[in-house]
Amino acid sequence: HKGFDVDLIRKDFPILDQEVNGHPLVYLDNAATTQKPQAVIDALAAYYQADNSNVHRGAHTLSDRATQAFEDARVVVQKFLNASASEEIIWTRGTTEGINLVAQTYGRANVQAGDNVIISAMEHHSNIVPWQMLCEQSGAELRVIPVNDKGELQFEEFLKLLDDRTKLVSVVHVSNALGSINPVEDIIEAAHKLNAKVLVDGAQAVAHWTIDVQALDCDFYVFSGHKLYGPTGIGALYGKKALLDAMPPYQFGGEMIEQVSFTGTTFNKLPYKYEAGTPNIAGAVGLAAAIHYLESLDRESLIAHEDALLAHAQTRAAEIPEIQLIGTAEKKVSVMSFLIKGAHPHDVGTLLDQQGVAVRTGHHCAMPIMEQYCIPGTVRASFTFYNTIEEVDALFDAINKVKMFLL
Ligand code: PMP
């Protein structure tokens, strides 16, 4: 696609063309998972139709082809993140597994009683609980960077929490619950001055703009394929080679070993050292297809379109006094979390669904930040490039009906 034609783009996503509860589907739950273009569906089918085999077993042609496709996909992810080598890309099931991997390998090997790990108040549970467990296991302290009422991370407070016993800072690039974009560049620079390592949870960032891990200089970067128009069950962990080399393995079994005997085992080189068992080969192939698809689009105009959708939604929201926006950071992506005063978010979600509008309701796996706002959850509409201004209007038409029904 040259330039940007949303009608043309929508044709690439067959799922969008359907009715739900008698209304055209308006899919506004992209922060939970994105839809898959035909190119990804085709790549998955083609892999299973023609190449399916186990990888790195080498003895026959199909296995060679599967291995080639799997390793080519790794290079696609490497280039997508601008990592310096493909061995710095570890396949995972997704963001959650990437964070657990780092907590249980880098964390277990480096974090001790008296040390501290820093996260922020707006983290997804998957970037809270692994560190909480590590701190319980090691006797280290978990410190939390506060977030203001607009949903902005308080950088000055972060600097106060950071000290020479900080071993790791793990922060979300973009909040899934609020849409806030965090100043990860500044966080990384400040942390490195005190020799702390930094993990960036990129689950919500990768779909919106290009990521350059070398420019960021982060130590670890994690994301999930399914939020990037790829399949579920596949994701990647980027880690700096020296760190990955030094860390102990995560899971044990086939693929990750070099030599096994009953007297002891030696481990495989990177990246296989962290990839025990038969991997999600088709998932990797599908993720590479998703990245190719995304890169075939003009990403600048995608961002401009998403920003326009958010701006339009915010204008429409401002016209409705009963709407309370949650998370109004200056820098945010196309996510609108809100409440309709006097209505429970779940009821709003159900009534929107009856009108064909798919949103997420609840705590968005970020209970602590909901607690800070003293709310049980929000209604979240998350827009992406295949959404249209008309769909934003359909959301607000539906909201007006919900108001009549509930208020
Ligand atoms: N972090 C953030 C910011 C997320 O949005 C999500 C998914 N909602 C995750 C982590 C977890 O990702 P996954 O469930 O794909 O492992």
From TrEMBL:
Record's catalysed reaction(s) = (sulfur carrier)-H + L-cysteine = (sulfur carrier)-SH + L-alanine
**Record's keyword terms, sorted:** Pyridoxal phosphate, Transferase
Question: Its function?
Answer: Catalyzes the removal of elemental sulfur and selenium atoms from L-cysteine, L-cystine, L-selenocysteine, and L-selenocystine to produce L-alanine.
An example Gene Ontology molecular-function term: cysteine desulfurase activity
Assigned protein family:
Belongs to the class-V pyridoxal-phosphate-dependent aminotransferase family. Csd subfamily.
Q: Per its record, how is this protein called by name? A: Cysteine desulfurase
Q: Which enzyme type, at the first EC level?
A: transferase
Q: Which Gene3D superfamilies did the record assign?
A: Aspartate Aminotransferase, domain 1 (3.90.1150.10), Type I PLP-dependent aspartate aminotransferase-like (Major domain) (3.40.640.10)
Which InterPro entries did the record assign? Aminotrans_V_dom, Aminotrans_V_PyrdxlP_BS, Cys_dSase_SufS, Cysteine_dSase, PyrdxlP-dep_Trfase, PyrdxlP-dep_Trfase_major, PyrdxlP-dep_Trfase_small
